[in-house]
Write a structure and sequence with these properties.
mainly alpha, elongated, 0% strand, 84% helix
């Protein structure tokens, strides 16, 4: 799983500025919906803006945290091996957290598609 995220982060690394610009734009859109938009428009599109911001923030998190694998330890020292294993364990836990966040974002997107977009089209 970690190698998947390392490869994905390396492929998405050149697009990091795009994720940042789109995250700022979706945050601005969410701010507009919360502060200035009419109530019916705001209620309809707030969850969409929030989910898009969460997705883009998660993509930024992925590209920043999994850009390089930790360097392997070749020494026989107990503490350096323990540190390496702890770093590996915490990165693995972080990979599971990012995966769970993507699954929650996907679930919310499906809720949006069924609750908001489908009635608009049909």
């Amino acid at each position: 799983m970690l190698t998947f995220y390392y490869v994905l982060a390396n492929k998405l690394r050149p697009l990091q500025w795009l994720w940042l610009v789109m995250a700022i734009a979706s945050l601005g859109w969410l701010g507009y919906l919360l502060l200035l938009a009419p109530v019916e428009v705001s209620q309809r599109w707030q969850l969409t803006a929030l989910v898009s911001f969460a997705f883009l923030l998660n993509m930024l998190l992925l590209t920043l945290l999994f850009d390089q694998p930790p360097a392997a330890v070749s020494t026989k020292d107990f503490w350096s091996r323990l540190q390496y294993r702890l770093r590996y364990f915490f990165r693995y836990c972080l990979a599971w957290l990012v995966t769970l966040l993507f699954m929650v974002i996907l679930w919310l997107f499906l809720r949006i598609a069924l609750g908001i977009i489908v009635p608009l089209l049909f």
